[in-house]
Amino acid sequence: MRVLLVEDDARMADTADRFLRNVGFAVDVAPDGASALRLAALNPYDAVVLDLGLPDLDGLEVCRRLRRQAQPLRIVMATARDAVESRIAGLDTGADDYIVKPYALGELVARLRAVLRRPAEALPAVLRVADLELDTAARRARRGNREIPLTAKEFAVLEALMRHPGTVMTREHISQHAWDDNYDPFSNIIDVYIGRLRRKIDQPGEATLVETMRGAGYRIAGGRT
Ligand code: CA
Predict the structure, then answer these.
(1) Which of 71, 139, 200, 202 has an alpha carbon within 20 to 30 A of 39's alpha carbon?
(2) If you measure from the C-alpha of residue 34 to the centroid of ligand 1, how many angstroms do you get, rounded to a whole number?
(3) d(CA 131, ligand 1 centre) in Å
(4) What is the mean pLDDT of residues 93-122?
(5) How many angstroms does the Cα of residue 117 sit away from the middle of ligand 1?
């Protein structure tokens, strides 16, 4: 899941950025409304954490403009404790939820996961391909009865593949969903992660689920022996 964090307080942004990465989100940070809108026009974010008090545009205005952009995304508005009215206004302008500042980062993650799971977006919490199961809420993967321990990044790559079963995912597509703007398109990092995933998922004697489509990318499919 890829998140745009809009926050002008550099220290707060940095702390939240690191926390969200650690739990497996790909994160880009925007310090003001204009860069938030620019980044949101360029990248397929799943969710935006939007500070209400920004140096240039009002957070509510940013929210309104984000809603006018075509891609569906979830917006969690961050507002000061005393700004009850602005919270309500935030929900009126199309925010999916709000969180009161200062917030615990664990709560922010819970809010993000909750809005990303909402049925309107048709994102099932548990993804299944053949006997492989990825529980995006509990952050667990298993194949048959075998529990598969995954790092946060491995989880993000597998989730990107499993949200489009049977579809060839290019490296670029995988990177857009699991990496941030620092992704280097000339690196082989995705191949490295796919290699690790394959060793964990497809063990000897099991049908191959993680397939390499030479020259095109990767896909997760129903399993071939
Ligand atoms: Ca602020």
Answers:
(1) 139
(2) 14
(3) 46
(4) 82
(5) 27
Determine if the pTM surpasses 0.70: no
* Torsion region of 144: left, alpha or beta (phi above 0 gives left; psi -120 to 50 gives alpha): left
User: Are the C-beta atoms of 118 and 96 separated by less than 8 Å?
Assistant: yes
Q: Rounded to the nearest whole angstrom, what is the distance from the C-alpha of residue 75 to the centroid of ligand 1? A: 16
Query: How many angstroms does the Cα of residue 55 sit away from the middle of ligand 1?
Result: 7
Tokens (6 digits) for 112: 């993000």
Q: Closest by alpha carbon to 210, among 155, 152, 166?
A: 166
CA dist 101 and 214 (Å) reads: 48
User: Does position 210 have pLDDT exceeding 60, yes or no?
Assistant: yes
Distance CA 144, CA 132 (A): 7
User: Can you tell me the distance from the alpha carbon of 70 to that of 187, in angstroms, rounded to the nearest whole number?
Assistant: 31
Please say whether the beta carbons of 69 and 34 come within 8 A. no
CB half-sphere exposure, 216, CA atoms < 13 A: 9
Residue 169 is classified by DSSP as: B
Q: What is the CA(1)–ligand 1 centre distance, in A?
A: 24
pLDDT tens digits for range 108-129: 999 999 888 875 545 567 888 9
Average pLDDT of the chain, as a whole number: 87
CA of 78 to the centre of ligand 1 (A): 9
